């Protein structure tokens, strides 16, 4: 895929809007005191709602939206949940943004199903709604989806792990996200597909949920090692979980002989690939998701043309230990394009 450009740090945030108990709603731009800001009272307004405002992935997503909004001279309103899973807060944010007159809303759904009624109400009022990163259930609930192909992201590291094992019998641990979360399910299934096995295969000796959290990843790995000390391949939902797994393996003196693969491509994770703690990761591009989303809303506002369907924002296998027959980029590329 094309090289994702690095952008400057996020613009200064303007005054916070009132009336949001669960979310922080902020208008980004030069205005103040009205809940919206930008190039003027007639400017197009775009909303961005992320799961949280602390996860580096969503920080980078917001940065991409801010830069695109500035380039197109539109007003950007942002909101973020207090925690991953704050559906009630996202519903409130949608309602407030619709009331503020946004032409479009970009959202990373915390609950892919529960958010749908609020999205349908926004669409009924003529608001373009685009999901970023995480699809709704059903995906058709939104006008469009701009996201990583998470099945493919998992498949890439599964193919890599299979090649890196060079025919050696695998004892696999999967450190997953949480039951029913589409991103986690797709990455897990993709990894198994890439490795050439299915759920229930004898080579998959342990599966634990981590919530994508480093401490929980460590605990999950400890549990798996108790169950099967001979684990030699570890798939992780993301790099924090991978680093937790590495900590647990190091405590057992196993960090050198267990292959860890992951997904995300954040800067911390990419550095862990560079120093050998993680063998490979599939890098995704949150900045691109948001930037393209803003531009889609601007197109709709100017001419009425709605974005539709799924837009793949790309994924790249990043490793310094390339395997024959697999396309990958090294960690210099990964660090040039990482986030966080």
TrEMBL record:
Transmembrane segment boundaries: none
Record bears the keyword Signal: yes
Keyword Signal set for record: yes
Key words, A-Z: Signal
Compartments in which it is found: Cell envelope
Residues in Periplasmic binding protein domain copies: 46-304
Name listed for the protein in its UniProt record: Sugar ABC transporter
């Amino acid at each position: 895929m094309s090289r994702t450009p690095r952008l400057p740090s996020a613009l200064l945030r303007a005054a916070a809007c009132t009336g949001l108990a669960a979310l922080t709603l902020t208008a980004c731009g030069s205005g103040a005191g009205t809940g919206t800001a930008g190039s003027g009272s007639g400017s197009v307004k775009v909303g961005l709602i992320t799961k949280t405002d602390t996860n580096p992935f969503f920080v980078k997503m917001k940065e991409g939206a801010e830069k695109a909004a500035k380039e197109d001279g539109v007003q950007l309103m942002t909101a973020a949940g207090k925690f991953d899973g704050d559906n009630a807060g996202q519903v409130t944010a949608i309602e407030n943004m619709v009331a503020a007159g946004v032409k479009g809303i970009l959202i990373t759904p915390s609950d892919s199903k529960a958010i749908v009624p609020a999205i349908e109400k926004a669409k009924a009022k003529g608001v373009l709604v685009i999901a970023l990163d995480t699809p709704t259930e059903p995906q058709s609930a939104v006008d469009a989806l701009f996201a990583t192909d998470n099945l493919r992201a998992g498949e890439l590291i599964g193919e890599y792990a299979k090649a890196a094992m060079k025919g050696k019998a695998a004892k696999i641990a999967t450190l997953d996200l949480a039951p029913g979360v589409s991103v986690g399910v797709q990455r897990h299934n993709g990894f198994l597909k890439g490795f050439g096995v299915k759920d229930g295969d004898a080579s998959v000796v342990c599966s634990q949920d981590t919530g994508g959290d480093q401490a929980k990843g460590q605990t999950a790995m400890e549990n798996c090692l108790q169950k099967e000390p001979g684990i030699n391949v570890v798939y992780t939902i993301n790099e924090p979980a991978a680093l937790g797994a590495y900590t647990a393996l190091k405590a057992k003196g196993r960090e050198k002989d267990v292959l860890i693969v992951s997904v995300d491509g954040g800067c911390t994770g990419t550095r862990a690939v560079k120093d050998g703690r993680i063998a490979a990761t599939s890098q995704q591009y949150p900045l691109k998701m948001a930037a393209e989303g803003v531009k889609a809303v601007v197109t709709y506002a100017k001419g009425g043309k709605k974005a539709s369907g799924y837009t793949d924002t790309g994924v790249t296998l990043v490793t310094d230990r390339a395997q024959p027959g697999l396309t990958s980029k090294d960690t210099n590329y990964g660090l040039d394009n990482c986030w966080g």
